Amino acid sequence: MRxxxxxxxxxxxxxxxxxxxxxxxxxxxxxxxxxPGGGAFPFWLSAGMLICCIWIIVRWFRGYFRxxxxxxxxxxxxxxxxxxxxxxLTVMVGSIYLIGVYGAxxxxxxxxxxxxxxxxxxxxxxxxxxxxxxxxxxxxxxxxITLPKGLTEPxxxxxxxxxx
Amino acid sequence: MEIINHLFDGFLIAFEPLNLILIVVGVTVGLFIGAxxxxxxxxxxxxxxxxxxxxxxxxAVIFLGAIYYGAxxxxxxxxxxxxxxxxxxxxxxxxxxxxxxxxxxxxxxLIAAATASFVGGTLSVVLFTMFAPPLAKVALAFGSPxxxxxxxxxxxxxIGLGGDDIPKTFFSIFIGLVLSAVGLDIVSGExxxxxxxxxGFFHGVNFLVxxxxxxxxxxxxxxxxxxxxxxxxxxxxLTFKKFVANMIRLKETIVTMLMGSFLGFxxxxxxxxxxxxxxxxxxxxxxxxxxxxxxxxxxxxxxxAAPESANNAASTGSMLPMLTLGIPGSPTTAILLGGMVIWGxxxxxxxxxxxxxxxxxxxxxxxxxxxxSLLVNLAFIPAFIWVLRIPFTILAPIIFILCIVGxxxxxxxxHDVWLMLLFGVVGYLMRKLDYPMAPTVLAIVLGxxxxxxLRQSLLISHGSAAIxxxxxxxxxxxxxxxILLFLPLLKFFVGKRKx
Amino acid sequence: xxxxxKTVTVTLGAMxxxxxxxxxxxxxxADFEPKKPVDFVIMAGKGGGADKMARLMQTIIEKHELSxxxxxxxxxxxxxxAEALIHMNNTSGAAQDHTVMVTLNSFYTTPLRQANLGIxxxxxxxxxxxxxxxxxxxxxxxxxxxxxxxxxxAAKAAGEDWIMAGTGKAQEDQLITDFLNRTYxxxxxxxxxxxxxxxxxxxxxxxxxxxxxxxxxxxxxYEAGNTVPLAAFTQNRLDKFPDAPTxxxxxxxxxxxxxxxxxxxxxxxxxxxxxxxxxxxKVFETEEWQKYRTDKSLYGDFLTGDALKDYWMTERSxxxxxxxxxxxx
Lengths: 164, 499, 329
Description:
heterotrimer, B: mainly alpha, two-stranded antiparallel sheet, 22 helices, 2 strands, globular, C: alpha/beta, D-Maltodextrin-Binding Protein, domain 2, 2 domains, 5-stranded mixed beta sheet
């Protein structure tokens, strides 16, 4: 936990400096008779972020620490759960480009329900089929929000012809 | 007594069978759209707009108004049950609504939210009925300096919202404000903070993307961790007896609701930001005024009642600048405004005199929509509670999917989905280290308004800050903001002396 | 050849051409039907003039069942329209035939000001110019100013304390403001706001001294007697505002319009282009659209195909000159 506090503060400090550098693309000073320039607002706020990070780092080295006990930031098990959650989502979003929302959704459902939740195949399969269908009718037909379909798009043309 | 006559005529219009059916359907549809994480009143209103040419303009706006109201009620549901605010107006509801749901009081929170919404909505319609034309004059005089003063006031009220770790709270506010600067600088017309030249950054960082990322994805990662993937089933039975007990419990929130309603309404009529600052300020004031402010954020029922009464009051209030000034206070009213153009109605100061049937029909239907929203909402509470019984391993992927759809829908850009995922993961990692997330989410809503109004004011005054003191309304709001900012300090010193 | 004969020949020729192109459009239209909902990109934010018009077009299309698939409006206001232009430029595959965009004058100014975007508007597919919005000079009635000369005198006396409110930087409103500043030796301060409705309100609330709003934005306040138009930036006086003289009458020929056009992405197939051209020609002819044009004092006839492209090229060079004059490029 202690190490994590320091690493996070340093990482965010670097990010703040990056934001300051990026903000400086526009004038960051006071333009006479006009007020602050276009970059001033983000620049000085990023500077504020940086100061906060330095504050956190300085007090860390002076021995201030608010988390009591030696609970680790992430034990092995937590890390595993976190990675499973984050990675499965990343893979799902990435796969939308290829197989579309209607391909990615059942895969995510099957992954979670069957391999994490250990629900029976019958329930998993039912939901994996029913949920995308409900999604399609609710979003695409009722709300006319078109969702990305990747390569599967032509498969939906007949459906549009029937329902729209 | 002209008003009473007009209102009576209005009720005759609102209670025509067609209009009454439209209100019921609109409220129900709105409630469900609003209850979906990521979808809000703006989706409902925008999508149903073309359908409205089937009915006359007055009925059409009644229908859209009903959807608007229903969605405002529904927004609280996803805030409480899932901890995901569907719209910026419902952020403040998560602060105490979510802890209540986690500690098995979801029913009490939902009932409080519905009732507070009803109180706020109804009171504000009454105020609207009686004072609309004079209030329109106040809204008209409200320029950039006043807007900036109001934003300062909003910031002052949520200074106490963060955690007790000072540098981390400030860090959270700052990062939210910086993210809000991404996109276009209105004053110079230059694009700014377009990271790595990715075109997606041109439209800025949408509030929803950040909120769904942090609260939706972050929350699920959090729950996954605490449950370690175990199936969690929370038992909660709703009986009539319990329902009555919950209603009686609302007694303690009456003052809070009244405060929220008035505050929300008056902030809402100002053509600045719609209902978000109003609901925040109500939450902040409720917390400051309370005898036990430390119980806020841990499941205090007043923390649900205050923002919910305020955001519904403000959404009624924001109809005023829309109708009389032609200025949308929120994306939803912007769409409604577009609708009025399509029906050939000209928003402006004369709308109240030229289109009495339309205006009073709308006002009367707002009364009806409020009452029906309350009834429909209460009727569906058992169904919403049932959602909590779904095993988490089924609920989690479904919420994930809704989050992705909700993040994608407003801009139809996969860029926002990736951004949402990033915010979710980084936000989760930061929250584990006690970085408070609420200030970030709120800062991204208020940031652009504060910056633009400040710079417009300075352009007008040629760089002199005196403009905020010379204008009476601005000066008065400024004074309130400063008092509020220094109030915690004052309390601190007074408290010390007592000890 | 006498002038009369010449006119007759030209007119006849034009009619034959128009007929030919019309039949061609008809034939081509049969070849293409949208297979999925059409993305109706709006180059501006919700609630603005372009947004309202786009939603009106969408409503007309649905009401008259002009298209087999719905048009789904998507607002892409980012970067003064840069985001929308990039989006159009990057469409590929089926999307190329299922995306159209409602544009305004940032269609010219944004690619000129941000050359690094690599947008060449001459590659975009012309679909239809639905209208040209007009601009007038407005002041608040409380100011007591009743004519253009009074405005010039008052603005000159106030110097830089005269506040001109407008939408966006280096866009339509500022180009006109800059023309007034240069031509009449004024020193008005230009303050940008987020939308035309907001600008109109700032004037009515006496937070600004003048604006150059479109009629649709000021109509509510004008009808309530809060604001007065002093001059029209058009060739002829507008029917709705007969007392506002044109700049030409005031001695300085200056007309400026805001296009309200529909464009397709570069690389849209000829069949699809013909389909959308015919579709929007029908929208233009509807009673609703014509009523909207009269109500809001809109100019401009329907333009399509090469005529629209030529119009863009002319307008682009005009804007290039204007932006150079104010030092934006």
